[in-house]
Amino acid sequence: MTMTIDEAGRSFAVPASYTDETRLHEALALLRRESPVHRVDAPGYNPFWAITRHADVLEIERRNDLWLSAPRPVLRKAEVDAAIDARRAKGTGLKTLVHIDDPEHRVMRAIGADWFRPKAMRALEVRVRELARRHVDRMAGLGGSCDFAQQVAVHYPLYVILSLLGLPESDFPRMLRLTQELFGQDDSRSRSGGTAQHHTSVLDDLLTYFRELTAARRARPTGDLASVIANARIDGEPLSDFEAASYYVIIATAGHDTTSSTIAGGLEALIRHPAELRRLREDPGLLPLAAEEMIRWVSPVKEFMRTAAADTHVGGTPIRKGESVLLSYPSANRDEDVFAEPFRFDVGRDPNRHLAFGSGVHYCLGAALARMEIRALFAELIPRLTGIELDGEPAWLATTFVGGLKSLPVRYTMR
């Protein structure tokens, strides 16, 4: 059935759109070609403009003085927007790096920035490699078949984040449940239906956990990132419990689901493109480029939103002050004007100007860590694989924000 431009635009507000990648990319290609700056009026959502071309997304990202994260940093149902606005008015709304703008953003980002610089990454690399080896060993012990997404990919990055924050591995089940609930509430596995009440409940659980962590690290600092956040000061004043908890939330959630989605989607791409898997096995030096291609291919962050601070234009289309735009990363990362053969998975793609980590002042704080995790896992896995194939149909998470494969059944042999 032929898709209309309006139907293509409304796909951004339909979580199930991201469970059918073929149909999704048909919609995105149509918009890039026919209506790259497209107004979307979707039931249950406040209106927005969908931005689908790489150049336009990049320009908006770079103009953080004109395009603000507040008050609508991600696409949510109108009722959730209203509930969050009400919390913000009371001073209890989530306030992470994603939600705020300069100059506050610059000051808050600096608190944790040193932990993601090259020196800190080198110090963490031993632990990341250890965890990668542990999870590949676990895969080897599963008898030649597993759901890679659920049994490997979802666990490994969360253990890395727990190590970075200095949290005990005993907290893994709680953190896994909360992060999956936060990003997966539009999916069938969540019975909440993405309601404002459930969104608020999950946030409250996360904030309660991290408030307790703040108190513990202030009473007894332990030299980890959690201690740095808990004891940070701005203009001589400590962060409020709520500010500290918000900081933990973005580290714990953004650093987990995005990387797990990329690892699962990266393996699925290698299985579907066996020549690329052979190429990578024969030339392990391609792994850094392969990791970038996995990130582009999966684009686990589906969108961020920005709100115009003044009347302006995007691609010749007028946007009024206060109107919101949705930056579509899966679309920008398949833009035919930027990527040669964008629908070809190429482990040696170079250059690879993907925008999966964003750009400008909001460029992903944990990008270096995500790259390290992906490289470490596949550096352990690929030399040990002697054969791998799908063992059923993969399934994708229904979402409008962050996601990827929720199930990847595979059958394999390993050394």
Automatic annotation (TrEMBL):
Organism per entry: Nonomuraea zeae
UniProt entry keywords in alphabetical sequence: Heme, Iron, Metal-binding, Monooxygenase, Oxidoreductase
GO molecular function list: cholest-4-en-3-one 26-monooxygenase activity; heme binding; iron ion binding; steroid hydroxylase activity
GO biological process per UniProt: cholesterol catabolic process
One Pfam match: p450
Protein name (Swiss-Prot/TrEMBL): Cytochrome P450
Keyword Metal-binding listed: yes
Keyword Membrane among UniProt keywords: no
Superkingdom of origin organism: Bacteria
Similarity comment: family membership: Belongs to the cytochrome P450 family.
